[in-house]
């Protein structure tokens, strides 16, 4: 009898199993839906708390940012939830502004989504158009990833067909003003904007936006170079460079009579460029050759006026760099030149130059072409003079670029470990005393393009190579498997890691 009951029970369980499994499968979508609603409701509850005055100021922004990032929903659903707050007649202005600020800080919203949100806020008069750039600065400064990933995010937003011209210009302004972007990243944003904008007038507006918001004269000129190189049409390139120089001159003239020398230098350069353009138009000069000469004129102007925002004299060096004692003959800086922390790439420089540029080639090299150098060739100079050592120029003496011997000492006298710092690939270099520095694999700049980013590192020494002709300079080279010294064309843009005696 027990056996019959057991058999009947087993049959009953087998018959019930498909129904039970089917019931679980049918309930699954409902469970997921409930989870989604619950997470979105967390966002709604935070909004209600802000609206009712229970959460305020920074605490409100923090809680709402967390709620956005925890929302178990796709990009469009998240965006729509925030837009619904902006469009709600029941939400206070403070609640709407908090929602905007939280969205700008959220890690799970794309920059393009944030632009869409700001455009909505302007349409419904929660924000004014002139406030957009300020909000976008917050968005850019909260971007995750390395510098190349940040540039890619900005370029993607600029390239979006859904982004209006006003929003693109606001994004350019924000990128220029953002403290977390290097000059190379800002030039990359300008280049992306020029390629994405549909016509000459909008491209010129982008250039003027960059000029107005870059504080340093040399940086303004670098922006002009980057922009005209990105323009596809030679005629537009020529018109744009003259218009941009005139806009820059007008901005400087507004500062007062103390800028007369700079205005004169710009006038002289503009006149020389106009002569080159006239020669092209009359058929007496090659277009490409004239453009190369125009770029050179901009480089020469940069050397004259590019070291500051208010005069022809270089700024006072700011020796704020910290160094680490690795137990070697010199102390090594904690960061690359131009970086704010050890994992930042910093700026790229051609060997013997002290200015950041839009492009790194023989056409823009300060000391001539590879077959016709004006310095560090047959003049007997094999080590950079202090005025051509960018570490000394930027940080002041006794900071300088390392010698080849000091690079060899770093290679042989320390332990090298390939690792990541703040998500950036590079080497932890540990001295025998246990102290460490981090060298990011920042690649290098050739022309206007970055090469070997996150794979290799290239750091200039202050020493010329002994290869005949003076074409090459010595450098530190590494990848994930090797560290060595090498020699490369001195026109390339490499990193600088200063040393201190």
Automatic annotation (TrEMBL):
Residues 1-21 form the signal peptide. It comes from the Bacteria. It comes from Prevotella multiformis DSM 16608. Keywords: Signal. This is Fibrobacter succinogene major paralogous domain protein.
